[in-house]
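Expect sequence, tokenised fold; for instance:
***
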Amino acid sequence: MRIGLIGTGRIGTFHAEVLSRHREVGALVVTDTDAARASFVADRTGSTAAPSVDEIFAWGVDAVVIASATSAHADLISRAARAGLPAFCEKPIALDLPGTLGALADVEKAGTVLQLGFMRRFDAGYTAARELVRSGKLGRLHTVRAITSDPAPPPAGYLPLSGGLYRDCLVHDFDIMRWVTGREVVEVYATGSDAGPAMFREAGDVDTAAVVLTLDDGTLATATATRFNGAGYDVRMELAGELDQFAVGLDDRTPITSTEPKGPPRCDNPWPGFLERFAPAYEAELDAFIQVVNGDLENPCDGLQALQALRIAEACERSRREHRPVALAEIPGA
């Protein structure tokens, strides 16, 4: 199989390393707007650097992996669809609903495959949680708590392009809540704080956010996120039912310290970032994509999943700005 990889930034480089050693990938072609960076990654992974995206399509590939800047995602998805190529794309499809819906329409018209990069669906802990919910071991699920805490904020220049904390960061929590519980969000109430550095206020963003979500069966969920967690990278989910409760992401690298005299010892090797925490999941999602391309697996995360997560994020942003609960029915869908 010949794969074209578009984008060789941090996540693109990781994907190049994974793809270059995959047993089903016979050739890998990489490109980036930074030609020197693409050449460096190509040399590092034994792949071929293409001068531009045009060559990725012209040279003939069996599928494309999109890890470019977010602003290019929708166009590249549409271009892959028109070329009849299966595509894997990092989230999001676009930073707004019109762009997302337009790209999805092109995929539907072409009848091609689009798999979105919500890597938590391939994490062992979240997979186990999903199975536990469905097994009935928790009894009636009544409460879900999700936490995402980055150790440090992104560069100031990234913030205006990110879509904001709900679309850029919490969208992962929104997707995984739907996937683990099997339920849909019907209403959100969101708030956020921009009390940190001025760059967040200047970008119209917040550095810390909290959301209360009501699911369609009455389950209540909370999701919090912050760009400032000096203890390390912390991503967790707690699921509480009438019979039991479980936690995802609680291990010997979770950057949290108990104040109890007999509590667990302080973690001395916390997760430094998302790539380290979710490396196996990133590998698993690319392996799944290759199986999808080969016809051996149904698409585990199609574009409609990304649309639903984005709709929740859009509802949160509206709720924050208007200081009111927002029903998902207010947010346009497919």
Remarks:
- The chain has two domains: 2-118+282-300, 121-275+308-330.
- The CA atoms of residues 76 and 323 lie 36 Å apart.
- The radius of gyration is 20 Å.
- DSSP finds eleven helices and 13 strands in the chain.
